[in-house]
Design brief:
18% strand, 11 helices, alpha/beta, 2-enoyl-CoA Hydratase, Chain A, domain 1, nine-stranded mixed beta sheet
Length: 293
């Protein structure tokens, strides 16, 4: 490759990097340009959990921020999520539980607050849902893929060295045995029991009552209220007003947001790559994630 070609390629790469940085900066400015106040006045905090629960750090950060703020008397947790990975869901659950022990936290369910989305809602002070909200889905799922036949077809052989017969259970590169199935099913059953206990404890319900509906079924918000999984039917605004009342705020409460997280451009690139590998191809390549989904 000539020196001139190297220079041209370098200039193109630098130009693309600068363009990407400017685009992200503009997008961040547009997204951040709203008239909702940050937590400098007395009022009700708002935290949103949208989409798949793949990580807990940002939600936990916001909950801790509001817990320390004396001006924030209560928080509304807006949940619009189909659930997600077990670990992060459990971490958010634990943080919501800690928050509810010290301040009021009212959950407002959007169109979907199922499985892990319900899990993180359970220990709150009160749960609001729309009549048509899709919720519950108390269950655990583990999705596995097998590409052994494909590997044989294209002539690729795989060799695995391991220290025990279960070390590569669920591998997409070998047959899924009855022993693998039994072992993984026991893990799923245990994780499912954790879910049931968390809902029973969070909602203060008899564990047997929760177990009766903990078969993965979805419920509408109206049905969920009949099973005492939801306290009231209402909108986000209803939940905000309820949080204000429970916090002892007179009149319409001021809605407060936590400060926005500083954007790390390298994180954006990494997250984009993770999105690729967390999908079906990621699972086919050997990823194994227990899901409240």
């Amino acid at each position: 490759m000539s020196k001139k070609t190297v220079i041209i390629v370098a200039v193109i790469l630098i130009s693309l990097s600068i363009l990407f940085a400017i685009s992200v900066k503009i997008a961040a400015t547009i997204i951040g340009a709203d008239d909702t106040h940050t937590a400098s006045k007395e009022g009700v905090g708002l935290i949103e959990v949208k989409g798949m629960i793949l990580d807990s750090k940002e939600t936990v950060r916001q909950l801790r921020y509001f817990l320390k703020k004396e001006t924030v008397k209560a928080v509304v947790l807006r949940v619009d999520s189909p659930g997600g990975i077990v670990g992060p869901s459990q971490e958010i659950y634990a943080e919501v539980k800690k928050f509810a022990a010290k301040k009021k936290i009212i959950v407002s369910m959007g169109s979907l607050a199922a499985s892990g989305g319900y899990y993180i809602s359970a220990p709150s002070t009160m749960i609001y849902a729309n009549p048509g909200t899709i919720t519950a889905s108390i269950g655990v799922i583990l999705k596995l893929s097998n590409i052994e036949a494909l590997m044989d077809k294209i002539g690729i052989k795989s060799h695995t060295l391991k220290t025990g017969k279960y070390k590569d259970s669920g591998s997409p590169l070998r047959k899924f045995s009855d022993e693998d199935r039994a072992m993984l099913q026991s893990v799923i059953d245990n994780t499912h029991e954790q879910f049931i206990k968390a809902v029973a404890e969070g909602r203060k319900l008899p564990i047997d009552d929760v177990r009766k509906i903990a078969d993965g079924r979805i419920l509408s918000g109206e049905q969920a209220m009949g099973h005492k999984l939801v306290d009231r039917l209402g909108t986000l605004q209803d939940a905000i007003e309820e949080a204000g009342r429970q916090a002892g705020i007179t009149g319409e409460p001021e809605l407060l947001l936590p400060p926005k997280k500083k954007i790390n451009y390298m994180d954006l690139l990494v997250e984009g790559a993770e999105g690729t590998f967390n999908g079906p191809m990621g699972r086919a390549a050997g990823g194994m994630k227990m899901m409240y989904e």
